[in-house]
Amino acid sequence: MNTAQRYRTVADEVAEVCAACGRAPGSVRLVAVSKTVGPDEVACALQAGARDFGENRPDQIVAKAPAFPQARWHFIGNIQSRRIPDIVGAATLIHSLYQLRHAEKIDRAAEALGKVQDVLVEVNVSGEASKSGAAPEEALALVRSCAALPHVRVCGLMTMAPQGDLSVAADTFRGLADLAGEIRAQLPSDEAAAFTELSMGMSDDWREAIACGATIVRVGRAIFSESFQE
C-alpha cells in the first residue's frame, strides 16, 4: 500500500473502533505524524483526506507548515526554549508543554504574533524516567498557571505509554483520562470548557487509547512506513 491507502485504512479503522466503543468517529482526531517524511508524502496524505499532521522538530514544522497552509500542524516533540517563537509561528496545537517557563515564553511569542496558542500539558503518567512530562500530582497546578497566561489556552493533556504491553498502555491511558476529569472539575467554567482534549495513543496502541477516551491519536509508522506491520 502507498501512503494514501495506508492513511485511509487507519482512518477507517479509527471510525470502526470509535463505533465499537459507542463513540462518534468525529470525536477522535487522527494526527498523521510526518516527522520521517518529506513534502511529497504529506501531499499524498492530504489528498487521502488527512488534515492534521505532527512534527517533533522545529526545523520540520517551520518548513512544512507554510507549504501546506490547509493543514493543521501539531508540535509533538521536546520544546527547546530558543525555538519557541518558531514553534508558535507554525503550530496549531503544542502537545508537549510541561514547564511553566516554556509556557511563559510561549505566551510572549503568541502575543507578538497576535494569537492565542493552544497547548496540551504533557503528563508522565507511567513514571518512566525515560519519558518527559509533569508528574500527575503537579499537573493541576501547572494547568492553572498556564491557563492564567493571556495568550495561552490549555486544551487538555497528553501522555505517552510504555511500549510492549498493551494492558500497561491501557492503564496509562485510563490514568490520564481520570486525571483530566479531576482537573476539569476544579477549573473555572470557561477554562473547563476549553479543557477537552486527550492526546494519547500511537501506531501500536491507539486502539486502546480510543477505548480509554482519547480525542487525539498520533500515528506515524502505520501511515508513512511501508514496513509497518501490526
TrEMBL record:
Family matches, as SUPFAM superfamilies: PLP-binding barrel
Gene3D superfamilies with a match to the protein in the record: Alanine racemase
Keywords: Pyridoxal phosphate
Pfam families found in the cross-reference section: Ala_racemase_N
N6-(pyridoxal phosphate)lysine: residues bearing it: K35
Co-factor requirement: pyridoxal 5'-phosphate
Alphabetical list of InterPro entries matching this protein: Ala_racemase_N, PLP-binding_barrel, PyrdxlP_homeostasis
Single GO MF descriptor: pyridoxal phosphate binding
Alanine racemase N-terminal domain boundaries: 23-224
Coiled coil stretches, renumbered: none
Family statement: Belongs to the pyridoxal phosphate-binding protein YggS/PROSC family.
Role summary: Pyridoxal 5'-phosphate (PLP)-binding protein, which is involved in PLP homeostasis.
HAMAP family: PLP_homeostasis
Listed NCBIfam families: YggS family pyridoxal phosphate-dependent enzyme (TIGR00044)
Protein name per the record: Pyridoxal phosphate homeostasis protein
Organism: Adlercreutzia caecimuris B7
